[in-house]
Design brief:
single chain, 109 residues, alpha+beta, four-stranded antiparallel β-sheet, two-stranded antiparallel sheet, 8 strands
Length: 109
């Protein structure tokens, strides 16, 4: 189903209705919203036929939920890839902090 607009272009029925419903809902998070969709020069096209209509009324029940997720890690890992086939090494920051690093040679003791 499509709407033929006054300028002759066609838009999918659901696309036009979704825009109208979003406008009717506004910023509401819950409750009921009524969407009244009048022809205003639009024609309803179904199966290649123009179908007359007086208007469309849709009552919308708005239900919203909010979920909060928090992702944390007790250990921060630094991945060190040596380039030796598939031999990747994972070293955690607390393991690195327990070692001494010689900044001139890069040696870890």
């Amino acid at each position: 189903m499509y709407f033929e607009l006054p300028d002759g272009t066609c838009r999918h029925f659901l696309e036009v209705m979704q825009e109208s419903m979003n406008e009717a809902m506004g910023d509401r998070k819950d409750g009921v919203a009524r969407c009244i969709f009048e022809p205003e020069g639009r024609k309803l096209l179904m199966g290649g036929m123009k179908v007359p209509y007086l208007g469309i009324v849709a009552d919308l029940q708005i239900i919203s939920e909010t979920e909060t997720w928090e992702f944390v890690s007790n250990r921060i890992a630094e991945l060190i890839v040596h380039g030796l086939k598939d031999a990747d090494t994972v070293i955690f920051d607390d393991q690195i902090r327990r070692r001494n690093i010689d900044h001139e040679t890069g040696e870890i003791t």
